[in-house]
Amino acid sequence: MPAIATQAATGGCTDVELAARVAAGDHGAFEQLMRRYNRPLYRTARSILRDDVEAEDVLQDAYLLAYRNMDKYRGESSLATWLTRIVVNEAIARSRKTSRRAQIIRLDGDNESINDAAETDMNEATSEQPENAAMRAEARRLLEKKIDALPEAFRTVFMLRAVEEMTVEETSACLRIPEATVRTRFFRARSLLRESLSREFDFALEDAFGFDGARCDRIVAGTLARVQNPQTDDI
Q1: Which of 20, 28, 192, 227 yields a CA-CA distance of 20 to 30 A from 136?
Q2: For residues 160 and 42, is the Cβ–Cβ distance under 8 A?
C-alpha cells in the first residue's frame, strides 16, 4: 500500500490498532506513529540530555526498540506513555554512558537533595510585527536556557507537565515515580524558573535606557560645547 494511503488509513486508529499494524510490519503505520509522537518524545529526550543531536539519536534508538517490541504493547497504558517510558530509559542510559559528571541524578529515585545545586545552576511573534517576532524568539531562547539549567529530575517533570501538558497521573506513569513526587518536583521547577527569570528581569531593568557609552559622551560634549560657546543658545 502506498505510504500516503497507509497514513490515511491509520490516521484515525486507536493506540492498540496502530500498534497492531506496526507489529505486523506496516511501515506506513510506523511512520504515522513517529510523526504523531515525534515532538513530545523528542522534547522528553532533550529534557534529559540537553543536547539536540543526542536527543535525536536517542529518539531513533527508542523508536527502533519500540518497533521490535511493539507486539508486547497490550494497551494497559496509552501508547504515548509506553513510548515515553522507552525514551526516558534510553535517554538516561545514554546520559550515564556519556556524562562526565561524578554523579547522575536519578529520575526514578526519591533523592530530593538537589535543591542547593539547583539554586546554583539556575544563574537565558507575531508574523505581522517583525520586532515582536524577534522579541518572542529571544524570550523563547531565554526560557529554553533556563529550563536546560534545571536539574534532571525537575527538568523532565516540568517538560512533561508544563510543555506536553501531561496530567500528574500520566507523568507518574511515564517516569515511574509517585504522584506526590511529580507534584513536588513540578512545583519546585516552576519556582526555580520564576526566581531565575525574575533575576534576569532585574538585571535587564538595571541596563534599561542605558546612559553610558555613546549617549553619555554625546550629551556631555553637546553641553560643554554650549557652555564654551553660549552664543549658539541665542540662535
Answers
A1: 192
A2: no
Q: And the C-alpha cell for 81?
A: 506513555
pLDDT tens-digit map of 98-123: 654 434 444 555 444 445 555 555 55
Residues 114 and 217 in one domain: yes
The four Cα atoms 171, 159, 56, 49 give a dihedral, to 10 degrees, of -100
**Percentages helix, strand, coil for the chain, rounded to the nearest 5?**
75, 0, 25
Residue owning grid cell 526498540: 65
Last residue of a domain, which of 50, 81, 104? 104
Phi first, then psi: what are they for 36, rounded to 5°?
Answer: -70, -35
Q: Which set of grid coordinates corresponds to residue 79? A: 501508547
User: Are 213 and 177 contained in the same domain?
Assistant: yes
Q: Are 33 and 18 in contact (CB under 8 A)?
A: yes
Q: What is the pTM of this model?
A: 0.60
Residue 93 to residue 204: CA distance in whole angstroms:
39
